[in-house]
């Protein structure tokens, strides 16, 4: 059976691709929801430290990078900003006054999404494009 550069069998059912896309997207959303809950929510959300911020940015950024790499489609942009909804649910929309910045979690997550997470997703998309284009022997 011939394979195309993406590694999928030629002539495979499109439903298989959609199922994989949805599985990866939902796994990404679950991963980011856990990160938001543990690092930004009721578990560690009350601590206001640079180390916690770097942990959120690093671990969350890895999730966005993997989303772009593993899905390999521009449609995954649908999943990029959905974790902000989780941040609203976990942190609410009002600052709680417990941190020095007094910034609601969803505002912080939005800034991280615009300036760090979305570029990490784009790098993942670039990696996916390059590996799809240049892997394998020339035909």
Write a structural description.
With 139 residues, the protein is mostly helical. Helix content is 66%, strand content 0%. It is built from five helices and no strands. It has helices at 14-40, 50-71, 77-80, 83-91, 105-134. It is elongated and about 50 Å long. The relative contact order is 0.15.
Summarize, please.
The chain is mostly helical and 139 residues long. Helices cover 66% and strands 0% of the residues. It starts with 13 loop residues before the first helix and ends in a 5-residue tail after the last helix.
Q: Averaging pLDDT over every residue, what do you get?
A: 77
In percent, how helical is the residue content?
55-70%
* Overall radius of gyration: 18 Å
**Biggest pleated sheet:** none
The gross shape turns out to be elongated
**Unreliable sequence segments:** 1-11
How large is the share of residues in beta strands? under 5%
Structural class: mainly alpha
User: How far do the termini sit from each other?
Assistant: 15 Å
The counted number of beta strands is 0
Helix and strand element order: HHHHH
Number of helices: 5
Please specify the SSE layout and strand pairing:
Elements: H1 14-40, H2 50-71, H3 77-80, H4 83-91, H5 105-134
Which descriptors would you attach to this protein?
single chain; 139 residues; mainly alpha; 5 helices; 66% helix; 0% strand; elongated; disordered N terminus
């Amino acid at each position: 059976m011939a394979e195309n550069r993406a590694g999928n069998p030629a002539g495979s059912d499109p439903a298989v691709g959609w199922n994989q896309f949805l599985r990866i997207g939902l796994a990404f959303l679950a991963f980011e929801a856990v990160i938001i809950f543990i690092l930004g929510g009721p578990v560690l959300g009350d601590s206001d430290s640079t180390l916690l911020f770097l942990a959120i940015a690093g671990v969350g950024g890895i999730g966005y990078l993997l989303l772009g790499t593993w899905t390999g489609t521009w449609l995954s942009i649908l999943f990029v900003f959905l974790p902000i909804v989780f941040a609203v649910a976990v942190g609410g929309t009002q600052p709680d006054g417990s941190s020095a910045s007094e910034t609601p979690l969803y505002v912080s997550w939005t800034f991280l999404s615009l300036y760090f997470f979305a570029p990490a997703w784009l790098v993942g998309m670039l990696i996916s494009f390059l590996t799809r284009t240049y892997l394998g022997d020339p035909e």
